[in-house]
Amino acid sequence: MSKRYQQAMLVSCLIPWDEGGELIEDVFRHEVRETLKQFNNLYIFGTAGEGYAVTSTQFKEIAGIFWEETAIDGVYPMVCIIAMSTAQVLERIGIAHDLGFRVFQITLPPWEPLRDEEVMTYFKDVCGSFPDSKFLHYNLGRSGRILNGSDYRRLEYAEPNFVGTKTLWDASISGIFDVATMTSELQHFYQETSFPYACMLGECSMLTGWGSLFPTKIKELFQYGVTGQTERAFELSVQLERVVATMMAPARDYNRIDGTFDKMVVRASGINMPLSMQSPYKAVPEDVYEACVAALHEQFPDWPG
Questions:
Q1: Picking from 81-85, 153-157, 251-255, 287-291, which range would have the lowest pLDDT averaged per residue?
Q2: Which of 24, 27, 104, 281 has CB atoms 3.0–4.6 Å from 277's, for a disulfide?
Q3: Looking at residue 28, which CATH number applies to its domain?
Q4: How many CA atoms lie within 13 A of 51 on its CB side?
Q5: How far is CA 166 from CA 21, 53, 86, 142, 152, in A?
Q6: In terms of Cα–Cα distance, which of 278, 287, 225 is closest to 62?
Q7: Is residue 265 part of a domain?
Q8: Statement: the pTM of the whole predicted model exceeds 0.90
Q9: Where are the strands (E) in the chain, listed by range?
Q10: Could you list the residue range(s) of the whole structural domain that residue 85 is in?
Q11: CB of 79 closer than 8 Å to CB of 105
C-alpha cells in the first residue's frame, strides 16, 4: 500500500543566534542554501532547531525567511511546532500556513501526559483545522507520552491528513517493530542507527542529524536501505556510530540539550554557525568543540564531505 508521504532523508536547519539572542539572518540563509545542495527535505524548529525557545515574533520571522529560501520546485519544506496547548499549536501553524507551508511536525502538549481520548481529540482538532495540510507526529519523551503502534493505527484510520512520524533517536527494536507493523500508510522517519533495521520491515525514511557533515556517507546509507542492501546498511551504520563516538568523546562530560551538539556538527561542516543557545541553555565550550573536530579529522579524515 502506498504511503501518505514520500520516502526521504529529513534534515533540520538550525538557528544561529548572536550574543543578544537575535537571529543572524545571513548565516541562516547560507545554512539553508548549503543544505539544499545536498538534500531537499528540510525542516525548522525541532528540538535541535530550538522550536521550544522562540517567541512568536521570532517564529514568524524565521519561518518567513525559510519559506523564501525553500519555496522551490522539488523542495519539501516542513515546520515543527512545539507548544504547550492546542490553541498555541493552531496559532503557530496558522502563521506558517499563511506563509505557504503545508507540511508540519507536531508534538503532544507536554504539561500533562495526554490520555487516549485526549490524544485523539488533539489530532482531530489540529489536523482537522488544516485539511489542506499534512502532519507528522514528533514522538519524543519530553511530551510525557510516547505513542505506540496501536495509537498510530487509530490515528491513521481517523485522520486522513496524518501522514507519518518522526521517532526518537533511541527507539528500541521492539518499538520500531510495533510501529512499523501496526500501520500501513504512514511514513516513519528513523535516525541513522535505527534506519537499517526499520528498512527490513518495509518502506521507511531517515532523519539525519549528520547530513551536513557527512552528506556522502549519509546518502550512501540511505540508498543501501531503500534498495534492500541490508548488510551494507548495517555495516555503514556501525561505522557511523564509531565516528560519532570518536568525535564526541571530548564532549562526553557535557550533558547538554540536543541543539548544542547539532550546532557543533553544522559548524564542523563549514557553516559559520555560532554555538550559542537561547537562555537558559549553555553551549559546549569552544575548546571542547575544537577538540571534537580535531579528533574527527585525526582518526576519520575521509568522512567529512
A1: 251-255
A2: 281
A3: 3.20.20.70
A4: 25
A5: 28, 20, 19, 14, 12
A6: 278
A7: no
A8: yes
A9: 9-12, 41-44, 76-81, 103-106, 134-138, 162-166, 187-191, 205-208
A10: 9-228
A11: yes
Rg (CA), the chain: 19
Question: Would you list the DSSP string of 104-132?
Answer: EEE----SSPPPHHHHHHHHHHHHHH-TT
Classify residue 214: in a domain, yes or no: yes
Compute the mean pLDDT over every residue in the chain, rounded to the nearest whole number: 95
Q: Above pLDDT 90, what percent of the chain? A: 89
Count of residues making up the chain = 305
Query: Long-range contacts of range 230-235, CB-CB < 8 Å, 24 or more positions apart?
Result: 230/196, 230/199, 230/200, 233/195, 233/196, 233/199, 234/196, 234/197
What is the total count of domains within the chain? 1
Cell 537561547 belongs to residue: 278
The Cα–Cα gap between 147 and 223 comes to 28
Residue type, 199: C
pLDDT for 171 beyond 70: no
Determine the Cα–Cα distance for residues 201 and 204; give it in Å rounded to an integer: 8
**Model confidence pLDDT, tens digit, residues 20-31:** 999 999 999 999
**Residue 89, phi-psi category: left (phi > 0), alpha (psi -120 to 50), beta (remainder):** alpha
Quote the cell numbers at residue 258: 540536543
Mean pLDDT of 179-191: 92
User: Measured between alpha carbons, how far is 161 from 265 in angstroms, rounded to an integer?
Assistant: 33
Asked if residue 250 is part of any domain, the answer here is no
Asked, for residue 106, whether it belongs to a domain, the answer is yes
- Cell numbers at residue 75, please? 523542495
User: pLDDT digits over 97-147, tens only?
Assistant: 999 999 999 999 999 999 999 999 999 999 999 999 999 999 988 888 999
E-state strands within 154-236: 162-166, 187-191, 205-208
